[in-house]
Amino acid sequence: xxxxxxxxxxxxxxxxxxxxxxxxxxxxxxxxxxxxxxxxxxxxxxxxxxxxxxxxxxxxxxxxxxxxxxxxxxxxxxxxxxxxxxxxxxxxxxxxxxxxxxxxxxxxxxxxxxxxxxxxxxxxxxxxxxxxxxxxxxxxxxxxxxxxxxxxxxxxxxxxxxxxxxxxxxxxxxxxxxxxxxxxxxxxxxxxxxxxxxxxxxxxxxxxxxxxxxxxxxxxxxxxxxxxxxxxxxxxxxxxxxxxxxxxxxxxxxxxxxxxxxxxxxxxxxxxxxxxxxxxxxxxxxxxxxxxxxxxxxxxxxxxxxxxxxxxxxxxxxxxxxxxxxxxxxxxxxxxxxxxxxxxxxxxxxxxxxxxxxxxxxxxxxxxxxxxxxxxxxxxxxxxxxxxxxxxxxxxxxxxxxxxxxxxxxxxxxxxxxxxxxxxxxx
DNA sequence: ATAGGGTTAG
Length: 427
Hints:
One of its GO terms (biological process) is RNA modification. The chain is α+β, with helices and mostly antiparallel strands.
């Protein structure tokens, strides 16, 4: 059955009912489970057929835009809200804020927040988490203070947002103090908060302290506790601890490919190629496959996806080669040289340079440069974390092209502008 | 109906 016939059937049913159980809303929700791209497509078809929408429809469609970084579509929905001249309710504005925050447009997010007549705890938490993932930790703290001054009682989500923000901006002691102060605000730390604390300590290099916390958590530890610690071992090159941590982690999450890759990276960084091989064999034996690294951009209504090393037709196209060569020359003058140490494989340097230059976010960046007007910001979303060399490359490219590049990875943002990044290189 | 924790080699 096509989307169109579904919509026709739905369009004739219960025209008057507009609650969350309205068929239109159930339709959008069920499509959402099938695929994000399909949801936005279905929503557009609904609009094309003059079917209208309720606030619930939009509140279901906006999180899809948020997840996809489909800012273009999200803005269109915002336009629909404005055009309808009705007062949007709190959940709708909350999801609108979140869509802006997850598209890296924290300014718009704040604007919506400021103009809300009523706010609930979700509004505050959304704003706070938005600051946090966009690396604006000072603004997050200021908002938290304002929350407390306004006698709004924070909940567990509030603390997750702030603690993870501290962790990613290197506010180690401040994060620790907040964790210890949680009970003063009437919140008992849960596993999620312990995971943040372990991350705060480990990321800043306090590996022993982090291990101590992880081992004494008064509840059954989750994969994210040991996963965070393993990542900290990777950041600080601690192989012996990594081996202890990995053992615990694999007991909890034997099927998470990321964990194996991380351990393999730790060995590769230390030049322990035999152990790298051993981890790979472990993966091959259990049939675990790494997720493919991919990046995407939205141009008009279409989402364009790029896979590392793939998209051969695109990489061979004249327009790609032209832009790539121009960029390469310009950033070389800035002093950019591919840092091949991020390619953790036992191959020669030329091969490494080739691989690192084919990471999906670079392909997406070139495509965005080709398909968007001069001076327009470039928004890229990646399903994995960015590698160190792509981070340097983006900085250089933002400078030579005079473009703002907003790169969102699994859960954080990098805003590159004029050769620097909002994360201040702590990540 | 809306907000939340670590991470992915070739």
